[in-house]
């Protein structure tokens, strides 16, 4: 008799994600002890041993709740029985910048990347599921995001893989049951003070009641479609950026300071706005604007220097970057030379 269907589904997803990896490579599972990453950990131990790969477990102890150190130690003790060796608990200090959730996430990824490098891992596996993806899309819609944000989380990004994005949370819970594993229920996952928890526990179930049980799956499909669109637009914008920034070198001292980015307006005027806005966003970032702080409204203001220019002198974007229109160019710089109007 084969394994229960949910166990087989999780193993298949892991097998697909690890396909093509060089024999002997080390893959690490980032495991919180919750159902998603516990099912992932067990399936990875199983698949890796049959695929000639080595598998290990990393758990991050944020030291935010009483007992978190014990939980991390329990996971490390459990790991060898799942075929995961090495297994490490990494303790991190969580700051407060950007709110407690964002700070914990940032500290977690930094710790995971550091441990992966130290252990020479070829990949770090995360337990995000289709339901996490659906929540991300809903949150993006509510913020008025564009295609890049609606694309949600990618199945692979650098070292990080998300093998379970095609499976629902119900499947991981059943897989744990099927393997006799007892996941940890994080009380945070039920705390309605978190927006994501309200989306998970109230909004998505209400949508499924009203619109049918396939809503999470449909939202995850939207994410995939948006990713394809965003990738295509990014590629177009990359070429457009090179054309607009790589014009005649005689003009390249217009910026007036090192690090300035100068774009030729005539290369931008005929572009679709979705592409032009991407070019402008990239120019601002290359000139020194921190990516996370650059809002759509900033990019729109810069865009008006092209589409609705009435001698406006200067647009400010985060990072102390000013944008001015000067001769047939847009100059992005910390202290751009005074504009021509
Ligand atoms: N403390 C942690 N240590 C290691 N990895 C973690 C930790 N917290 C989260 N992760 C990784 O990030 C993924 C997504 O985290 P998130 O907080 O959204 O999930 P979770 O509620 O912890 O659920 P689960 O553990 O069931 O995946 C997890 O599946 C896991 O791979």
Short description:
This protein has 341 residues and is an alpha/beta fold. 50% of the residues lie in helices and 13% in strands.
Keywords:
elongated, Rossmann fold, binds adenosine-5'-triphosphate, alpha/beta, four-stranded antiparallel sheet
What's the level 1 CATH class of the largest domain?
Alpha Beta
Instruction: Tell me the strand order in the biggest sheet.
Output: 3-2-1-4-6-5
Bound molecules: adenosine-5'-triphosphate
Structural class: alpha/beta
Q: Can you tell me the number of structural domains?
A: 2
Helix content: 40-55%
Which strand-content bin applies to the residues?
A: 5-15%
Q: How many strand segments?
A: 10
* The CATH topology of the largest domain: Rossmann fold
CATH architecture of the largest domain: 3-Layer(aba) Sandwich
Domain tRNA(Ile)-lysidine/2-thiocytidine synthase N-terminal: 27-201
Binding site for ATP: 32-37
Catalytic activity: cytidine(34) in tRNA(Ile2) + L-lysine + ATP = lysidine(34) in tRNA(Ile2) + AMP + diphosphate + H(+)
Subcellular location: Cytoplasm
Describe this structure in words.
With 341 residues, the protein is an alpha/beta fold. Helix content is 50%, strand content 13%. The chain has two domains: 5-227, Rossmann fold (3-Layer(aba) Sandwich); 246-333, 2-Layer Sandwich (Uridine Diphospho-n-acetylenolpyruvylglucosamine Reductase, domain 3), CATH 3.30.465. The chain has helices spanning 5-18, 35-51, 68-78, 100-119, 130-143, 147-150, 169-178, 195-211, 215-245, 265-269, 273-287, 296-307; strands spanning 26-30, 54-61, 87-91, 123-125, 156-157, 160-161, 261-264, 315-317, 321-326, 329-333. It has a six-stranded mixed sheet, with helices on both faces. The protein has a four-stranded antiparallel sheet with strand order 7-10-9-8. β5 (156-157) and β6 (160-161) form a beta hairpin. α1 crosses α7 and α9 crosses α11. The longest helix has 31 residues, at 215-245. It is elongated. It binds adenosine-5'-triphosphate. The site of adenosine-5'-triphosphate has 17 residues, from α2 and β2. Adenosine-5'-triphosphate is lined by residues 30-32, 34-37, 58-60, 108, 126-128, 132, 186, 189. Residues 27-201 form the tRNA(Ile)-lysidine/2-thiocytidine synthase N-terminal domain.
